[in-house]
Amino acid sequence: GSLVRTFTPFYFLVEPVDVLSIRGASVIMNCSAYCETPLKIEWKKDGTFLNLESDDRRQLLPDGSLLINSVVHSKHNKPDEGYYQCVATVESLGTIVSRTAKLTVAGK
Fold first, then answer.
1. What domains can be seen in the chain, in order of their start residue?
2. Helix (H, G, I), strand (E, B) or coil at 97
3. What does the similarity note say (predicted)?
4. Of 28, 20, 3, 5, nearest to 81 (Cα)?
5. Which of 10, 13, 45 minimizes the C-alpha distance to 30?
6. Is 70 exceeded by the pLDDT of residue 16?
7. Using CA atoms, how far apart are residues 23 and 73, in angstroms rounded to an integer?
8. pLDDT digits (tens, 9 = 90+) for 40-70
9. Strands, DSSP E only, in 2-81?
10. Which of 14, 48, 58, 105 has its CB 3.0 to 4.6 Å from that of 73, i.e. a possible disulfide?
11. Opening angle at CA 81, ends 80 and 86, nearest 5
């Protein structure tokens, strides 16, 4: 018997967009993906997965968006500025990666 594979819709509903923030503000990088089966959303910054478990300033919102509380930005420490991507994974299906969104922190 041949295995019939049906198409499972799996796509982004919302992808992050470039954001301009100021130091100390909160930022939401929007992301939301659709699939009929459970999916996992993770975030990359500058190509590296963020570890949100141990991060007290960044958190994953229920819809998959990334909340950054109190943006940190100083001359020598710019941990929040950079390029963000939302990565959605469905175990049996695969992974999709959103467009890259740049977070810029404005100076004084």
1. 11-105 (2.60.40.10)
2. strand
3. Belongs to the immunoglobulin superfamily. DCC family.
4. 20
5. 13
6. yes
7. 6
8. 999 999 999 999 999 999 999 999 999 999 9
9. 10-14, 19-22, 27-29, 32-35, 40-45, 48-49, 58-60, 66-68
10. 105
11. 75
